[in-house]
Structures are given as C-alpha cells and as structure tokens.
Amino acid sequence: MRNTRAFKEAVAQTLAELARRGVTVRPGTVADVIEQNVGTVAARLGIQVRSAWRYFDAAGLADTIARQQQEFKDGSDARVVGQAPMPPVDNPELALIMASVPDSLAETGGDLYTVILNIAVNAWMAGHVHGEDGCDGCEGSRGPSGHDWEARMKAIAEGVPDITKWFDRDVWTAALHDSGFSVERR
Q1: Nearest to 15 by CA among 35, 1, 30
Q2: pLDDT tens for residues 31-83?
Q3: pTM of the entire structure?
Q4: What is each CA distance from 139 to 88, 132, 143, 149, 176, in whole angstroms?
Q5: Distance between CA 82 and CA 76 in Å, rounded?
Q6: With helix as H, strand as E and coil as C, how does 134-146 read?
Q7: What contacts 128, CB < 8 A, 6 or more positions away?
Q8: Nearest alpha-carbon partner for 66 in 31, 37, 30
C-alpha cells in the first residue's frame, strides 16, 4: 500500500493540512495512521484497499490528529501525571549521561536506537532521583535514610572533576566526531 501513488498523495495532503493547522507530526507517524485507517476501512467494508481510498479525508484526519495532540497537551499536567522533573542543566549526573553518548555510539556500532534508549532510561532515573531527593518540599518523605541527592551529586562531581565541559556544545560535538559518528540531516 505504501508504494502506491494514492498513499503518497494521502500522506502529503495530510501533512499539508496539519501544517495549515500549525501542527508538526513526523511523516512516518502520519503514514502509519493512514495505512492503519485505510486498511481498517477496507477490512470492515469487505472491499479492496484501492477502493477504500474514496473514503479517505486528509482534512478530517488532520483535524483528528490536531485535536488528539491538543488533548494530550491539555491533559499532560506534570502535577497530575506525577512525572519526575528533568535534572537541572548543570547536574553532574546529566553531564555523565551526555558524556556517554559518543562512547555508546562507538560501542554499539552506531545503533542509534540502543543509544537513545540508554539515554532515556538514564535521564529518567536522574530526573526521578532529582525529583525525590532534590525536592525542597519533600522533607521527611524518604524515611530514616533522609535525602541523599546532594551527597550523590557531590560524589559524581568528585569522581569526574571536569564534568562541566560536557555542557559545552563544541566539546560534545568534537567527542561525537571523535567516536567516528555524527548526526546529519538527510
């Protein structure tokens, strides 16, 4: 289905409609939604996929996607979700995560999925630790062990004294290129 002219036109029309609404969505995501919707219409009506295209409405799909994005934004209040904050930009743990990217790319042979998964998990943990232990309003919430966030950050900074260099874009980019990999737009 994805190699047909109708499919490619449907993706282009939907992306154009989304742009008119000021909504940015990855083209692959739009393609996935269209493929699923057209396939579902064909299956439910018992018709061929090429006949299901007559029921496709790019503007209607764009309205639905835009509405869903807005509902997600409106319903994603951090206070309601219980989402841990990202650690501050000068956080030593965040610097370690950033420093690990070039090495991780080299170790995995450029497997970007594995690198991003590693970053996401570690950043989530750093935010979680910062959110629980670094929270001024959480006094007494950890029981007898107290808050160890300051001690944790101090230990990391002592172990890697030049940690702030990883917040310099040029230093990080040089390390990335030194790993043999780079990120370039297609």
Answers
A1: 30
A2: 999 999 999 999 999 999 999 999 999 999 999 999 988 887 776 554 444 45
A3: 0.49
A4: 20, 10, 9, 12, 40
A5: 10
A6: CCHHHCCCCHHHC
A7: 84
A8: 30
Determine phi and psi for 136, rounding to 5 degrees.
Answer: -65, -30
pLDDT digits (tens, 9 = 90+) for 66-79: 998 888 777 655 44
**Cβ partners under 8 Å of residue 30, min gap 6:** 11, 14, 15, 18, 65
Are 65 and 25 in contact by the 8 Å Cβ rule? The answer is: yes
Terminal-residue alpha carbon distance, the chain: 24
DSSP string, 6-26: HHHHHHHHHHHHHHHTT----
Half-sphere exposure of 112 (CA within 13 A, CB side): 5
Amino acid identity of residue 72, one-letter, is F
What crossing angle do the helices spanning 149-159 and 92-108 adopt, rounded to 10°? Answer: 50
Residue bearing tokens 């000021």: 22
User: What burial class does residue 75 get, using C-beta atoms within 10 Å of its C-beta: 0-12 exposed, 13-18 middle, 19+ buried?
Assistant: exposed
